[in-house]
C-alpha cells in the first residue's frame, strides 16, 4: 500500500471567478490548469486529453480556433471544464458525456454547430447558460 506524504501546505486555487483554499494532504490530489485570458491562438492541442488526472481546465477568453478535441473524453477526473469565449467551432464531441465527474461545463459564446450531446449523466445537469452564444448550436433544453 502506498503511503501518502504528510503535506502541511496551504494553497489558494482560483477557478471560474472563485478562489478556494485548501490545505493538508488533499493537495497531492489537486490539479488544475487555468489558461484563461492569455490571448492564446490556434487549436487546442489534442494531447491535452492525455492529462487524465486533471480536475479543472479553463481556457476561456482566448482566441482559440478549431474544434473541441475528442481526446477530452480521457479527462476522467475533470470536475470543471471552461471552454467559453474562445471562437471554437464544430460540434461538441458526444464522447464528453462519458465524463461522470464533470460538475461545471461551459462552451458558451463560441461558434459551435450541430446538436448538443445527449442529456444523460452529468450533461443532464447543465442548463442553457452552458451553451448560450452559439447561434448554430441546437439544444433541446427548455
From TrEMBL:
InterPro entries: Leu-rich_rpt (IPR001611), LRR_dom_sf (IPR032675), RLP_Defense_Trigger (IPR051502). It comes from the Eukaryota. It is a single-pass membrane protein. Pfam families: LRR_1 (PF00560). It is found in: Cell membrane; Endomembrane system. Keywords: Cell membrane, Leucine-rich repeat, Membrane, Repeat, Signal, Transmembrane, Transmembrane helix. Its main location: membrane. Transmembrane segments: none annotated. One of its GO terms (cellular component) is plasma membrane. Belongs to the RLP family. This is Uncharacterized protein. It comes from Ilex paraguariensis. The lineage of its organism: Eukaryota, Viridiplantae, Streptophyta, Embryophyta, Tracheophyta.
